[in-house]
Amino acid sequence: MAQFETVRVPRRGFLKRAAAVGAAVPMAGGLIAAACNDDGADAANNVDYKDTKTPAAAVTAASQEEWEDIDHDHSAGIQQFLDNQESPLTKGKGNQPLEWTMDGDVKVFNLTVDEVEWETEPGNIEKARGYNNMIPGPVIRATQGETVRINVTNNLTESTAVHWHGLFVPFSQDGVGGLTQDPIKPGETFTYEFKLRNSGTHMYHAHHNSADQVNRGLLGAFIIDPEDPSTMPQYDKEWIFVVNDTSLGFTINGKSWPATEMFTAKLGDRLLIRYMNAGFMNHPLHLHGMPMLITAKDGWPLPQPYKCDTIDVAPGSRYDALVECTEEGVWVFHCHVLSHAETPSGFFGMATALKVEA
Question: Do 349 and 15 form a contact (C-beta atoms < 8 A)?
Fold first, then answer.
């Protein structure tokens, strides 16, 4: 018979535990209930969270001191997030544009694969891996019909390979270590070259020991603009929104709340959000205040775009969403698996905001 014990877990510990089991149950005053079988095995996955009589799901009433602490912690975390927009709380920033050169009619990019110490939230430095020393890796951007050459130099302590997720490429360029190519050994450089045949929102990521390498940061956005711009919905601003989980915690563009970056737009702007999930888990991403018009999935335009305020982005998936910025204010934007975004100590992990200014 299962026995239950109540343990107090700080926000960072909650994040790690939630990442390990896929969900966790927040309790008043920073408590979560851990279920253990008689033999000590974790039985959390056997708990019926819909049954409020189950000890692991029952939220106890908070004392005055507890709820005051909860209020204080929520407000303090929000203030940290706002401060982060004025002066970053953490070192490192991903998603930077990758520069290129021309060799005849070939567009040439250079990627390094690096061991990185990456700060996901203030004071939390992880032993991670990144392309060009950043997480997510730099944004590769080119136009449909162009030929690209991508030189990849491996600075890791193990082999790797790079897969071009969603792109039409020759088999020899697909980047699966041991199948389409020999793995890129430490210290070696491998050159990929292919013509860009399909436009849209795509990714690149490691495909050798990928469960470890991708989750520790080897992922990036690959945006292919259409040869005919009129086939693409018009927009004023673009937000590349990459989510990941588990090894580095719940992150948006390589950072966890309060170090996530708030996106800003003007009232009346049309915002294009390019969602990408490189993690292990589904993340239903929810924007407060305004609906999204989903226009493409996995790089392919939808024949019938549809409106929603929550889009469930499965691992490997990409979505394009248009937001008409009609409502002024600061609108929370978070994963709606709430154990990925909020604890009794306030927001954490996969939470940010969209600020719409007049």
Answer: yes
Same domain assignment for residues 206 and 256 = no
Number of domains in the chain: 3
Where residue 254 sits, what CATH number does that domain have?
2.60.40.420
212 and 244 co-located in one domain:
no
Q: What's the one-letter identity of residue 84?
A: N
Are 116 and 220 within one domain?
yes
**d(C-alpha 106, C-alpha 234), whole Å:** 28
Task: Give per-residue pLDDT as tens, 195-224.
Answer: 999 999 999 999 999 999 999 999 999 999
- Co-location of 227 and 251 in the same domain: no
Q: Report whether 263 contacts 273 (CB < 8 A).
A: no
* pLDDT number for residue 42: 36
**Average pLDDT of the residues in 92-101:** 98
Task: Name residue, tokens 């929102």.
Answer: 201
Q: Which of 231, 262, 290 lies at the terminal end of a domain, its last residue?
A: 231
Residue type, 257: W
- 10, burial (CB in 10 Å: exposed 0-12, middle 13-18, buried 19+): exposed
Contact between 110 and 153 (Cβ < 8 Å): yes
Averaged pLDDT, 78-94: 97
Determine the structural domain holding residue 53 and report its residue range: 3-86
- Structure confidence at residue 15 as a pLDDT band (50, 70, 90): very low
Angle at 214 between CA 213 and CA 217, to 5 degrees: 90
On whether both 77 and 48 belong to a single domain, the answer is yes
The DSSP secondary structure of 170-221, one letter per residue, reads -GGGS--BTTTB--B-TT-EEEEEEE--S-EEEEEEE-SSHHHHTTTT-EEE
In this structure, which amino acid lies at residue 97? P
Model confidence over 256-298: pLDDT tens digits? 999 999 999 999 999 999 999 999 999 999 999 999 999 999 9
Structure tokens at 15: 């994040």
Q: Does 131 reside within a domain?
A: yes
**Whole-angstrom Cα distance, residue 181 to residue 173?**
8
Spacing of C-alpha 315 from chain mean position: 10
Domain co-membership, 245 together with 332:
yes
